[in-house]
Amino acid sequence: MTEGRATFPIEPWSLTEVGLDHASLGVHESVFALTNGHIGMRGSFEEGEPVVVPGTYLNGFFEERPLPYAEAGYGFPEQGQTMVNVTDGKLIRLLVKDSPLDLEYGEIIDHTRTLDLRAGVLRRSTEWRSPGGRTVRVTSTRLVSLARRSIAAIEYKVELTDDLGDLYVALQSDLLANEDVPTEDDDPRAAAALAKPLRSELAVGRGRRAVLVHQTRRSRLRLAAGMDHLIEIPDSSTEDIEASADLARYTLAARIPQGGSLRLVKFLAYGWSSRRSSAALRDQVEAALATAKLAGWDRLAREQRDVLDQHWDEADVEIEGDDELQQAVRVGMFHVLQAGLRAERQPIPAKGLTGPGYDGHTFWDTETYVLPVLTYTAPHAVRDALRWRHSTLDLARERARELGRRGAAFPWRTIRGEETSGYWPAGTAAFHINADIADAVVRYHNATLDEDFDRDFGAELLIETARLWASLGHFDAEHGFRIDGVTGPDEYTAVVDNNVYTNLMAQRNLREAAEAVKRQPDVAGRLDVAPEEVDVWLRAASLMAVPYDTQRGVHMQSDAFTHHEEWDFAGTPKENYPLLLHYPYFEIYRKQVVKQADLVMALHLRGDAFTLEEKIANFAYYEARTTRDSSLSASQQAVVAAETGHLQLAYDYWAEAALTDLQNLHHNSGHGLHIASLAGGWTVAVAGFGGMRDHNGELTFGPRLPERITRMRFRVVYRGRKLTVTVTHENATYRLEDGEPLDIRHHGRQVTVDHRDLVLAIPPAPQPDPVRQPVGCEPRRRSRPGVRPERHASAEDSAVLR
Ligand code: BGC
Fold first, then answer.
1. Which of 33, 268, 516, 701 sits 20 to 30 Å CA-CA off 672?
2. Is the bond preceding 131 in cis, omega lying within 30 degrees of 0?
3. What is the pLDDT of residue 741?
4. What is the pLDDT of residue 798?
């Protein structure tokens, strides 16, 4: 699925495909995916072909499959979980006289598709001449409702545009289960489990409505998909409905008079459950269909716009001086919102619901990349996401026990909550995910002061993760509290001692758990937290080992990292990236080579633990050793580059993060979008060039723009208020749109913001020595828009999606 570059005209509020480009088909299916976090539909055509991955997903709906090992080991997960391509309701096939509409046959007179970021719909317009010489224009508008979680709809119109007289057309509107999809898994057992994962339980069709109910064979999850239709036809027509095991079809045959048109609205409803019966699920989708049909297309479209109007009003980032980045940042924010808004009690996968990549799994990407954006733009979605984590707490407790630890050990990758990573060093050993979850809890609580959440979910998450750290590390007379044998964010340095990122995040986790015990004595009582236990947490936090190399004047990413042999970058040809596919782990793990921001990530998220001088020195050191073999790296490097005065470099990385999918920089956007990287578009704007930090319950800013950007404005929601920050090269203006005055810091100075403009000068940036990247890993300088950020292949380029 390695594909060419996708290109889109630059527009502020939309993304348009002009003409049909076969090489970019899969990428466009991903970037035109519509989802609300519950239902996901890739942007494949209504007529079903040409297609790369058709893709319809329901969050949390997966099939189990065996996880193969050449050699088994204690605690290795035995079952994998793979998101299933569910019943496809996007299909509307059109027969023009006797030729099916197919963009590969006949003649495309013109074709565009537009993702409208304010209306939240995908519009398509295709004028097509059939091989038989008749010309029609097909327009469709598709939405996955952000207001009604179980509903999607398609408005489909056929217009006769030639003057050759009346035309007979037929429309077949389908629900299709067990579609053929390409599988990435070479293991025949896994492929077999996923080949036709759905077993039919019920198929009913009546009038213009049909429902199919299926169950997965192994995970025993049940799903219902339903469709109903409204039609407007100018002349005579016949209709038919049929429903069999894997296909339900509504057929409409009509005569369109010269100059006439036909309109069909297809309503879709989806539901799934691990417990409810077929009959109950059928009733559920039929009821949802009935209310959607009653509301009608216009109302659904209006509700969609209302949700987005409110979102952009509260969250928009305006960028002057780079229209391409403006577009990319908004597209990224749109997809982040789509991924999380209605996920409710389900996880947010690394690809959202935009493609099958990473098997549909959720990683730390959610808590560390996606939730910080949503905390300040759509906080209720964060509450839901963390409630989902909380709902998996018993599984995490069980996993901790299996590993001989206390508290909770959350999985590195999962759909339902069980660990499904089959590779220890870049899987369960990445224990930092537990502190990442705790960090997201702290951030959300601080930004919303949601006391109910704290009492019902947050405090327990903090306490159980703190218990894990206390039992994972140990006190050592010489080095304080050590956490040994873990993997930090950098998967090229695995199973190490005292990873600084992990230790500092654990330190925050331990301290915050102690605070939670004070705030929520009832929760602490229920969990049997004794005062001595809290003392241990606080002692561990204050004695936390943070290795430092005094000779080089930098922190060690983990113990002895700076003593390892240097990687021979000059002798590494470009085609040998990503390194993990070309060198044995033995070679990679014991050298100073970094896959993705790790110590640099600590400089951002635990910036309160470093001085500016330390940040400058550390950034330079790790910059020279980081390959950016993961799409999660660029945005974090950008944030720290901006803080340490490397503004042009931060700008270069901003483009790399934000354009990851629009320019298919990792050559695999066809598998689904890189949601964490897209979230990075916002993060670089707000945390990078806005310098926003939220350490220790304080909201602080340190805005500074790169040369090309003349003005930037962003909004954040914070403790029930809307704060707008406008930045130019000379000053920053802060204003509250509503609510009580708010104390913030601007470049270290404490100020109070209210509903009036508070204009503050921006001090000069630090002037550090230039930094360099490894030979061959330099970002392309962003001197003008339209220039593709160049990069070598990355870890994600291959099927080895680790
Ligand atoms: C990265 C991980 C990330 C995962 C999913 C890997 O390549 O190294 O940090 O969680 O991709 O995005």
1. 268
2. no
3. 98
4. 42
Residues 303, 320 share a domain? no
Q: How many CA atoms, within 13 angstroms, populate the side-chain half-sphere of residue 670? A: 22
Same domain, 294 and 350: no
Q: Give percent above pLDDT 90 in the chain.
A: 92
Band the pLDDT of 799: cuts 50, 70, 90: very low
Residues 308 and 324 in one domain: no
Average of pLDDT values for 413-438?
97
Catalytic residue among 303, 491, 512, 796: 491
Write out the DSSP string of 367-413: IIIIHHHHHTT-HHHHHHHHHHHHHTHHHHHHHHHHTT-SS----SS
Q: Binding site residues for substrate, as ranges?
A: 364-365, 595-596
| Residue with CA nearest ligand 1 atom 9 | 489
Residue 424 has a CB neighbour count (10 Å cut-off) of 16
Instruction: Examine residue 61 and state whether it is found in any structural domain, yes or no.
Output: yes
Q: Is residue 18 part of a domain?
A: no
What was the pLDDT predicted at 191?
61
pLDDT per residue over 320-337, tens digit each?
999 999 999 999 999 999
- Check which CATH number belongs to the domain holding 560 and give it: 1.50.10.10
Q: Which residues pair with 727 in a beta bridge?
A: 712, 732
Q: Which tens digit of pLDDT belongs to each residue from 133-166?
A: 999 999 999 999 999 999 999 999 999 999 999 9
Assess whether pLDDT exceeds 70 at residue 579. yes
In terms of domains, do 595 and 619 share one? Answer: yes
Q: Mean of the pLDDT values across residues 530-536?
A: 98
Structural domain boundaries, residue 191: 32-313
CA of 534 to the centre of ligand 1 (A): 33
CA geometry: angle at 182 spanning 101 and 120, to 5°?
Answer: 60
Domains held by the chain: number:
2
Residue 785's pLDDT band, with cuts at 50, 70 and 90, is low
Domain identity same for 638 and 527? yes
Question: pTM of the predicted model, to two decimals?
Answer: 0.96
Show Cβ contacts of residue 368 under 8 Å, excluding neighbours closer than 6 positions.
Answer: 436, 439, 440, 605, 676
pLDDT of residue 294: 98
- Is pLDDT of 435 > 90? yes
Q: Which residues are near ligand 1 (CB < 6 Å)?
A: 350, 358, 363-365, 489, 491, 596, 630, 632, 676, 795-796
CA distance 265 to 256: 17
* Distance between CA atoms of residues 18 and 656, nearest Å: 23
727 pLDDT higher than 80: yes
Same domain, 588 and 611: yes
Q: Does 776 map to a domain?
A: no
Shared domain check, 326 and 267: no
Domain of residue 100, CATH code: 2.70.98.40
Q: Which atom of ligand 1 is nearest to the CA of 364?
A: 10
DSSP state of 746: E
The whole-chain average pLDDT of the chain stands at: 95
Residue 645 has pLDDT above 80, yes or no: yes
Residues 567 and 649 in one domain: yes
Does 784 reside within a domain? no
The two structure tokens encoding residue 496: 């190490």
451 is an active site residue: no
Residue 608 CB contacts under 8 Å (≥ 6 apart), including other chains: 693, 695, 696
